[in-house]
Amino acid sequence: MTESFVPGLFAIFAAYLLGSVSFALVSSRLFGLADPRSYGSGNPGATNVLRSGNKKAALFTLIGDALKGWLAVFLAQRFGLSDTFLALVALAVFLGHLFPVFLKFKGGKGVATAAGVLLALDPWLGLLTLATWLLVAYVSRYSSLAALIAALLAPIYAASLHGTGALFGIVTLIALALVAKHWVNLQRLMAGQEGKIGGNKNTQHPAKKKKKR
Questions:
Q1: pTM of the predicted structure, to 2 decimals
Q2: Where are the domains of the chain?
Q3: What is the dihedral of CA 60, 37, 105, 129, to 10 degrees?
């Protein structure tokens, strides 16, 4: 019991640290860009990095954030961790992105990392959720709307593929966290104030506007 418990705890801790690595900041430094928290939505994520006008940096961010989610779950599977620890690892890497220890617990929205986690848990589940995001984003040009709809449908996809077991539970928790992280975006969508994909870098997020008043 102890022999399996200790590796599981280590895997959870390592997954959280991996999730805490912000590829938005890494790519911005590699490509000589400003800190993504200083413009646009202020969110350290691929969509906001895209507002810098550097598509390569945005793609690097997207792949990096998705890859860390996939890698954490993949390694947990390879080391034969139990379903319970596997679920906790998936949640830990995702929460690491949302609340990174390296950024004073102020991270990104978690869409790419969640996609990586789902692809590792079940490729079909991940692909269905990713396809939903891509379709809504392509039609609406709103990354936040695409994320909200994909998050709401992901548990339904999980239930359809695997029933309402452990996988459904972890996917539901991730979906709820995504919705919570996008709550302000939802309010801006309803008010017609949400920025579209590839929008102006100089568009300020609400927190900055309030400081100037």
A1: 0.88
A2: 2-199
A3: -50
